[in-house]
Amino acid sequence: MTKVGVLGAQGRMGAEVCRAVEGADDMELVAAVDQGDPLDALTAAEVVVDFTHPGVVMDNLRWCVERGLHAVVGTTGFDPSRLDSVRSWLTEESSGNVVIAPNFGIGAVLMMHFAQKAAPFFESVEIVETHHPNKADAPSGTAYRTAELVAAARAEAGVAPSPDATTSGVEGARGADVDGVRVHAVRMSGAVAHQEVVLGGHGELFTIRHDSMNRESFMPGVLLAVRRVPELDRLTVGIEALLGL
Ligand SMILES: NC(=O)C1=CN([C@@H]2O[C@H](COP(=O)(O)OP(=O)(O)OC[C@H]3O[C@@H](n4cnc5c(N)ncnc54)[C@H](O)[C@@H]3O)[C@@H](O)[C@H]2O)C=CC1
Ligand SMILES: O=C(O)C1=N[C@H](C(=O)O)C[C@H](O)C1
């Protein structure tokens, strides 16, 4: 039985993780911690799952690493400099391993993978993500990571930047620029988590779309990461490797 602790246990995702862990035959929920609770209860765990807030996740993660606990992190906000900081903490033999994934949905991971594969074949690529209006960060971690992967694939293939003749307009109309890829964030009542990667070439548009209809959809990926994190090597970003991609 893997002993699991959950940080952010009263949140939308954290509560779902608690239910999923309690329903798994090979796991035991030993700590459910939320804002204001002492973290000490987590020392009973082998693996800590964090779904909290981009503003607090670094402190949480450092606390776990310093105690040799493995961590599975779904909280967003991990740019390259944050990932470098985490790598620098994981140098001690006594450190636990860490999985940080902007999205644990199997379909979402495949969407990112297919977007990365398709990106060099089209002149233009932009990303449109739609989320519930309670989301704190924009663009979403998934959109940010998709843009990074797409940009890296295009750079490696020597593809020119997406054409864009815009010289005037209202600020924000063209979205955010993530590594040269335009990302548009929609916040919409009724939405959960949705993303389209739109690619355009000569006389054709290719759209890769993923929809998360509920938060249960993320649980197979979270449980997979909890099972595998002890055997991984320090920091793993995304669950692509765990799925054999
Ligand atoms: N990787 C993935 O597959 C997914 C990632 N997310 C991300 O997970 C994060 C949380 O999302 P939601 O559950 O929707 O948010 P939420 O706001 O419903 O839940 C966050 C919880 O964390 C708690 N919290 C805040 N600071 C804390 C602290 N210092 N210690 C312990 N608990 C603390 C809050 O009280 C709240 O209960 C966001 O960054 C979101 O983007 C969300 C869905 C899927
Ligand atoms: O906040 C959410 O809800 C989600 N957050 C993650 C993100 O920012 O990509 C994953 C999913 O999109 C749901």
Q: What ions, cofactors and ligands are bound?
A: 1,4-dihydronicotinamide adenine dinucleotide, the ligand O=C(O)C1=N[C@H](C(=O)O)C[C@H](O)C1
What is the CATH H-level superfamily of the largest domain? NAD(P)-binding Rossmann-like Domain
The residue fraction in helices comes out at 25-40%
Going by helix content, strand content and strand pairing, the class is: alpha/beta
Contiguous low-pLDDT stretches (5 residues minimum) are none
Radius of gyration: 19 Å
Give me the count of strands. 11
Distance linking N and C termini = 27 Å
CATH architecture of the largest domain: 3-Layer(aba) Sandwich
String of helices and strands:
EHEEHEHEHEHEEEEHE
Average pLDDT score: 97
| Total of helices | 6
What is the strand arrangement across the widest sheet?
2-1-3-4-5-11
The CATH topology of the largest domain: Rossmann fold
For the sheet with most strands, the description reads: 6 strands, parallel
How many independent structural domains?
2
* Shape type: elongated
Strand content: 25-35%
CATH class of the largest domain: Alpha Beta
Subunit structure: Homotetramer.
InterPro entries: DapB_C (IPR022663), DapB_N (IPR000846), DapB_N_CS (IPR022664), DHDPR_bac (IPR023940), NAD(P)-bd_dom_sf (IPR036291)
Protein name: 4-hydroxy-tetrahydrodipicolinate reductase
Pathway: Amino-acid biosynthesis; L-lysine biosynthesis via DAP pathway; (S)-tetrahydrodipicolinate from L-aspartate: step 4/4
Jot down its keywords.
245 residues; alpha/beta; Rossmann fold; Dihydrodipicolinate Reductase, domain 2; 2 domains; 6-stranded parallel β-sheet; 5-stranded mixed β-sheet; 29% helix; binds 1,4-dihydronicotinamide adenine dinucleotide; binds the ligand O=C(O)C1=N[C@H](C(=O)O)C[C@H](O)C1
